[in-house]
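Now for one protein, fold included:
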Amino acid sequence: MWKKLTGILSGVSHDNKRTKKLKYYLKVIFIAVVLAVVLKMFFVEAFKVPTSSMENTLLIGDYIIVNKLVFGIRTPDRIPLTSVILPSYKLIPFFSPVRRDVVVFYYPYKKVDLKEENNLIYVKRVIGIPGDTVKIVNKVVYVNGESFEESQNVKFNSSRIRIPGNGNERIYPRGKDWNEDFYGPLIVPKEGMKVKLTFENVGEWRELIEKETGDNSVIVEEAGIKINNTRTDNYVFEQNYYFVMGDNRDNSMDSRFWGLVPENLIIGRAEFIYLSVESGSAYEEPGFFPSFRFDRMPSVIK
């Protein structure tokens, strides 16, 4: 009898040890998951570069780390462990993007909603900050009348230069006789900036105003201009905007085409490349060892 009892107690003790060990491992896993989620939500996030628009600064197959904290503490932009997008608000501002920063952001001119496929993420270089005036002459970028200090990695694929006045209908804002090589001057709005609206310039500002006030909110009548059915001759912008471009200037869809980036859609600043894989040899192709670009990993993004 005693042997049976001690055997049962020994088994219970053994089970308790296994239970405690299991609880310990589950606790460690839970803490690790929570820390990873918090890190991704507020501090840093990894992204893969999908296009050539930032060559030669970033190449297809580069994996980059984005600093989300540098521009301030924000509410989460996604439900944890999902791809569902949430409105994000800055709680504690630290810094704002400056010229030459390489930033990651949500594509601004397709409405950000709860459908993942509609929320494209772009990476570009900041050219104009709030209050700047941007102009391009013969492919040369000017900011506030001075030649922009370009990155040494800026790339031009085409020797062909478009002529001034030969407008491209895809260029932002619509209706201007601007093109990719002769562009502007364009004023980059800042929060609180008031612009006077006239019949001549309302087309230049309409798209941006309607991003803040709602679709089809700007109505132009013979008697004047209305915003949300209120007649007015001015508008005060509600937030800061940025003019961004890809370093691969002749092969980049950027602010020249789809307009300005509102500050609330900027995710963070691209800091460094932690992994780089030749295009076409990435992990998605089983059976092939990836062709790593060791000269790019790790490297600071400039």
